[in-house]
Design a protein that fits this description.
Helices cover 16% and strands 32% of the residues. The longest helix has 11 residues, at 95-105. The protein has 117 residues and is of the alpha+beta class.
Length: 117
């Protein structure tokens, strides 16, 4: 087994409300989480910022929004990764789902999630 890294995430949305059935299938505890900055290095060498939420169409599925900065520092949506890599994927909105999704395009191999706020 590869040695893994810790994926640091910030909680950017509200914590799950009491009584929300999200707690039955998700260990995230928050409606929206993201990397703190452009902290994931892709297999293509670019630095990526990634935000994760639940897909509104499929309540339990993971929705991923990815962007990178060009050489001039301008952020761009990474549509090629979002659509080509995840078009047929159906990861759950859980820490294991997030790790599986990130490990598809990341140069590094992540094995744990730690929330930093």
């Amino acid at each position: 087994m590869k040695n893994g890294k810790v994926l640091y995430l910030e909680k950017r949305g509200c914590d799950f409300r009491p009584g929300d059935n999200s707690t039955a299938f998700s260990d995230i505890g928050n409606y929206r989480v993201s990397t703190p900055d452009f902290t994931i290095t892709g297999k293509d060498g670019k630095q990526y910022f990634v935000e994760f939420t639940r897909d509104n169409r499929y309540r339990r599925a993971l929705f991923i929004d990815i962007c990178y900065k060009d050489p001039n520092g301008i952020p761009w949506a990474a549509r090629k990764i979002q659509w080509n890599e995840f078009q047929n994927e159906n990861h759950p909105y859980t820490t294991s789902g997030i790790l599986a999704a990130v490990n598809i395009f990341s140069r590094d191999y992540y094995t744990a999630v730690r929330f930093i706020n």
